[in-house]
Automatic annotation (TrEMBL):
Keyword field: Membrane, Transmembrane, Transmembrane helix
Coiled-coil residue windows: none
TM region positions: 12-33, 54-73, 85-101, 113-131, 137-162, 169-185, 191-211, 218-237, 243-264
InterPro entries named in the record: VCA0040-like
KW Transmembrane (keyword) present: yes
Name of the protein in question: DUF368 domain-containing protein
Domain of life: Bacteria
């Protein structure tokens, strides 16, 4: 068992409750993105047992985080939204130097890679402007509600695997984010189970797609990924706070996020 993955799962799970922050981005920062894709794909092959040592600790960390740390993150967003979002902006931007170095962008990027990167930025920025609002908690659960939750879970988990696109933000766009968060907080197993099945299927499908592109179009895939990560900054940016004190605090938390990304990157990429 790779128990080091437990703390990685804690971080990934915590950010997944935040609309705009992608667990895929954090996986890149932690240096496990390609391994994660390979492990998910390998789990559905004859060598599935070999993947358990990687996936189980990561899954434990994510589940514990979603049920425990998620409440702390929600509290910070409710009471200190701007400083919290600036921290995550720093964390997101802090991953870029490691990505550029990993793919050796200075020597490998050509015009087509730059185009894909710009397209990635545009796609996420457009998604940032698409929202139906938070919506309301669905109290009258019907068969159509379960179908909606299942496919919402599929879409959200597909987005979770793609760096720069937040799974929780996709739930927000689909209007089920409050319902899912409330179900997690109140342990409504029916909603959790149906959404979870959709998430599992989305993981399987999207991991195979991403795995194919990483294997056959590695540099191009990373170019698009870098664009998605850059674009997510525009989604997370909350605007400048009204008071000077909050501006100073937000700048401090932004720098803290950058430094945290640097430390994690040094730890994982050394």
């Amino acid at each position: 068992m790779e128990w080091k993955n437990t703390y990685r799962g804690l971080i990934m799970g915590a950010v997944e409750v935040i609309p705009g922050i992608s667990g895929g981005t954090i996986a890149l920062l932690l240096g496990i993105y390609e391994r994660l894709i390979a492990a998910i794909n390998g789990f559905f092959s004859k060598d599935w047992k070999k993947q358990l040592g990687f996936l189980i600790p990561l899954g434990i960390g994510m589940v514990v985080s979603i049920f425990l740390l998620a409440r702390l993150i929600e509290w910070l967003f409710n009471h200190y939204p701007a400083p919290t979002q600036f921290f995550f902006m720093g964390l997101i931007l802090g991953v870029l130097p490691f990505l550029l170095h990993k793919v050796d962008a200075k020597n490998t990027f050509k015009m087509k890679h730059i185009i894909f990167m710009v397209v990635g930025i545009i796609v996420v920025t457009i998604l940032g402007f698409i929202s139906t609002g938070e919506g309301e908690i669905i109290s009258n659960i019907t068969t159509s509600t379960y179908i909606l939750l299942f496919f919402s879970g599929m879409i959200a988990s597909s987005a979770l695997i793609i760096p720069g696109i937040s799974g929780s933000f996709m739930l927000l766009i689909l209007g089920v984010f409050p319902t899912v968060i409330a179900a997690i907080s109140n342990f409504q197993l029916n909603i959790i189970a149906v959404t979870g099945l959709g998430i599992a299927l989305g993981f399987i499908v999207m991991s195979r797609i991403v795995g194919y592109f990483l294997k056959n179009h590695y540099t191009l895939t990373f170019a698009a990924t870098i664009g998605l990560v850059v674009g997510s900054v525009f989604v997370v940016f909350p605007g400048w706070p009204a008071s000077a004190a909050l501006v100073i605090i937000s700048i401090f938390t932004f720098l803290t996020g950058l430094f945290t990304a640097y430390l994690l990157g040094r730890l994982e990429y050394r």
